[in-house]
């Protein structure tokens, strides 16, 4: 279990992200990039294996009101295809337990965020499989799918109340599912 100082360090030791909220170029077109549901980035049929390049692209990715995803620079805007959600939650750190616990989650592009009001955890149920589909809301209209291993570890931290599993984090309560 991480200390409160460890959580603060994870959240504060990140480089700032580009100010893409201030960039509004016209659409340049579609680019042959597909972000697969397993988190892999594919360009022209081949996987982008350079993690630093994926991190760079992720830092300029946003979802707009039309529901589409775009890579944005001050002068260009390229539409990309996203199969499910563009990022994944692959790890987390817990600072304490009970109602006052803080949980920092890590994306597959090494960004740390704290679960809470600004980055809530939402759990939908897949209509076909009835499996939980947890996600964390990020910045710029993006969400990250919580991978199965992380989700089940979060479930272990939840309390059962009124036939529901409730996770406390960042002063908020998140319903993970029914018991």
TrEMBL record:
Q: The organism sits in which domain of life?
A: Bacteria
Matches recorded under InterPro entries: DUF1285, DUF1285_beta_roll_sf, DUF1285_C, DUF1285_N
Q: List the protein's name.
A: DUF1285 domain-containing protein
Q: Which residues form a coiled coil?
A: none
Transmembrane region(s):
none
- Locate the DUF1285 domain: which residues? 18-84, 86-176
The organism is Zhongshania marina
């Amino acid at each position: 279990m991480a200390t409160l100082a460890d959580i603060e360090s994870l959240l504060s030791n990140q480089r700032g992200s580009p100010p893409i909220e201030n960039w509004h170029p016209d659409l340049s077109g579609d680019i042959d990039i597909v972000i697969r549901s397993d988190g892999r980035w594919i360009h022209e049929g081949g996987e982008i294996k350079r993690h630093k390049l994926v991190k760079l692209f992720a830092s300029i990715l946003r979802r707009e009101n039309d529901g589409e995803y775009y890579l944005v620079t001050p002068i260009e805007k390229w539409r990309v295809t996203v199969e499910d959600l563009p990022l994944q939650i692959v790890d987390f750190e817990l600072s304490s337990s009970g109602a006052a616990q803080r949980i920092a989650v890590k994306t597959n592009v090494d960004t740390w965020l704290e679960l809470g009001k600004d980055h809530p955890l939402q759990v939908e149920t897949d209509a076909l499989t009835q499996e939980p589909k947890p996600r964390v809301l990020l910045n710029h209209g993006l969400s990250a799918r919580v991978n199965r291993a992380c989700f089940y570890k979060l479930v272990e931290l939840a309390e059962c109340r009124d036939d529901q599993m409730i996770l406390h984090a960042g002063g908020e309560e998140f319903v993970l599912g029914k018991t």
